[in-house]
């Protein structure tokens, strides 16, 4: 369980990092907190020739409110966002969901944008980005672009990022007035990979439900009040989960129905 | 830009338990292995090597982190604390003594990591309650105790800010 050999680069500026990515392409991997990547490298599921460590870049350490969203820089750890004093006010779903991301000891290093770039089907932050309709701000030496959540995650641990591109910030829309949110998940141990994770955001007209852990990418559906069991059941089937070593597809559907109902009720009860 | 080539050893300097240390490491050398094999600091244990079991947890610049998910070359200039730092000249510290009293360990493999997580938590949240302590312990695997002894030990020393002990 030791990683294959790699060159280690610690650029002083974002420009240096992007130049190195442009030069090395697929052979390079960005490392911010490394809480998923280092584990994959230990298992040799990832064998980059060059590891570009961006953890020290001050320009990526910012949390801002801009353009109607919370902009989280690529160097911001999950623990730092969770500890941000305005989080519960500006986007309560993130405050509800972040304690489920990994463990106390991995959130201290693991970054928000790194989790999005890794895009594990069971991870919570890609689910939050999809559920809230957020986007990522991406840069390369060629320029920049903004990729919506639905276009960003294209499959299991696969994103729309080109080899020379990196996420410099993730943008989670601010909570709108008169809305409520809830989040819950089931895993073998708190903080382990979610077997099913369910988030919900609602207003007086209806509720948007998002599910992670079942399909290759987060599944999202808009439902109107009152939400019937049949609608929840249809959604559970539409996700098309498969059996794996943690749970059967049938068990996952049951979790989507049951946890889905719980978070929907929680949102409904919390609405003004 | 600091650029360290694969296959070559590079000098790394940092502070370990208040002492300046240095050693040579290839970029791929895990911090956990550097601590044990290069520096001979065997207090930190190595379990799963993919961030799941928590045995290798240490403190780095005031955070509890997995030393198996860090490379030695990444901790240049940082301040690290490991389980070797806990005991006082008089013997076990409060948390260690509470672990002993409540049978918070049997084989002891997971113990260094658990002690470092609880030490960090106590610095951040000295009044953490049982639910919070169990939440933080979810980042560790112990196959001997069933965790109850560990939780009791922690509850003995947390909430001490008003002089309970």
How many helices of chain B does DSSP assign? 5
Average pLDDT across residues of chain A? Answer: 96
User: What is the CATH-assigned architecture of the largest domain in chain B?
Assistant: Roll
CATH architecture of the largest domain in chain A: 2-Layer Sandwich
Q: What order do the strands of the largest sheet of chain B run in, or round the barrel if closed?
A: 3-2-6-4-5
Task: Find the biggest chain interface.
Answer: A-B, 37 and 35 residues
* Terminal Cα span of chain A: 52 Å
- Give me the strand/helix succession of chain A: EHEHEEEHHHHHHEEHEEEEEEEHH
Helix and strand content put the structural class of chain A at alpha+beta
DSSP helix fraction of chain A: 25-40%
Global structural class of chain B: alpha+beta
Q: In this structure, how is the largest beta sheet of chain A organized?
A: 5 strands, antiparallel
The CATH top-level class label of the largest domain in chain A? Alpha Beta
Beta-strand residue fraction of chain A: 25-35%
Strand content of the residues of chain B, in percent? Answer: 15-25%
Explain what this protein looks like in three dimensions.
The complex is a heterodimer of chains A (272) and B (165). Chain A contains eleven helices and 14 strands. Chain A is an alpha+beta fold. Chain A has three domains: 7-53, 2-Layer Sandwich (Uridine Diphospho-n-acetylenolpyruvylglucosamine Reductase, domain 2), CATH 3.30.43.10; 62-173, Uridine Diphospho-n-acetylenolpyruvylglucosamine Reductase, domain 3 (2-Layer Sandwich); 180-270, Enolase-like, domain 1 (2-Layer Sandwich). In chain A, strands 4-5-10-6-7 form a five-stranded antiparallel beta sheet. A four-stranded antiparallel beta sheet of chain A has the order 11-12-13-14, sandwiched between helices. In chain A, a hairpin with a 2-residue loop joins β6 (135-140) and β7. The model of chain A has no long low-confidence stretch (mean pLDDT 96). With 165 residues, chain B is α+β, with helices and mostly antiparallel strands. In chain B, 29% of the residues lie in helices and 17% in strands. Chain B has five helices and six strands, in the order βββαβββαααα. The mean pLDDT of chain B is 95. The chains are: A alpha+beta (272), B alpha+beta (165). Chain A binds chain B through residues 1-12, 16, 20, 34-35, 38-39, 42-43, 49, 51, 53, 55, 79, 99, 102-106, 108-109, 189-192, and chain B through 1-7, 26-28, 30, 33, 48-52, 54, 57, 63-66, 68-71, 73-74, 117, 121, 135-136, 138-139. β1 of chain A pairs antiparallel with β1 (2-4) of chain B, so a sheet runs across the interface.
């Amino acid at each position: 369980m030791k990683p294959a050999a790699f060159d280690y680069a610690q650029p002083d500026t974002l420009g240096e990092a992007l130049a190195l990515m442009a030069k090395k392409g697929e052979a390079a991997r960005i490392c911010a907190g490394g809480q998923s990547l280092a584990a994959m490298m230990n298992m040799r599921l990832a064998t980059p020739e060059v590891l570009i460590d961006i953890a020290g870049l001050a320009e990526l350490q910012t949390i801002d409110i801009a353009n109607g969203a919370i902009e989280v820089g690529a160097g911001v750890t999950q623990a730092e966002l969770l500890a941000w004093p305005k989080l519960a006010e500006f986007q309560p779903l993130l405050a509800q969901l972040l304690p489920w991301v990994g463990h106390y000891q991995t959130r201290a290093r693991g970054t928000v944008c790194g989790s999005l770039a890794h895009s594990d089907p069971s991870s919570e932050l890609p689910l939050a980005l999809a559920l809230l309709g957020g986007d990522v701000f991406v840069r390369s030496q060629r320029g920049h672009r903004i990729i919506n959540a639905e276009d960003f995650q294209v499959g299991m641990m696969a994103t729309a990022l080109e080899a020379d591109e990196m996420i410099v910030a993730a943008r989670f829309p601010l909570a709108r007035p008169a809305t409520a949110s809830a989040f819950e998940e089931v895993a073998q141990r708190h903080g382990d990979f979610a077997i099913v994770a369910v988030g919900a955001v609602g207003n007086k007209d209806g509720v948007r439900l998002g599910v992670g852990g079942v399909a290759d990418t987060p599944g999202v559906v808009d439902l109107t009040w009152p939400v019937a069991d049949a609608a929840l059941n249809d959604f559970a089937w539409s996700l098309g989960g498969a059996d794996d070593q943690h749970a059967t597809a049938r068990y996952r559907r049951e979790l989507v129905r049951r946890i889905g109902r719980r978070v929907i009720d929680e949102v409904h009860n919390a609405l003004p | 830009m600091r650029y360290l080539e694969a296959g070559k050893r590079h000098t790394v300097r940092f502070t370990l338990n208040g002492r300046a240390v240095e050693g040579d490491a290839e970029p791929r050398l895990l911090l956990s292995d550097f601590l044990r094999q290069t520096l001979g600091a065997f207090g930190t244990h190595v379990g799963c090597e993919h961030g799941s079991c928590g045995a290798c947890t240490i403190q780095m610049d005031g955070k509890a982190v997995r030393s198996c998910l860090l490379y030695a070359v990444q901790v240049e200039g940082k301040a690290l604390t490991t389980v070797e730092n806990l005991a006082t000249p008089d013997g076990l510290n409060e948390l260690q003594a509470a672990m002993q009293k409540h049978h918070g360990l049997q084989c002891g493999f997971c113990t260094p990591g658990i002690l470092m997580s609880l030490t960090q938590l106590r610095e951040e949240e000295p009044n953490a309650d049982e639910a919070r302590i169990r939440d933080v312990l979810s980042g560790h695997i112990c196959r001997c105790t069933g965790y109850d002894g560990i939780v009791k030990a922690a509850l003995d020393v947390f909430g001490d800010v008003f002089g309970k002990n």
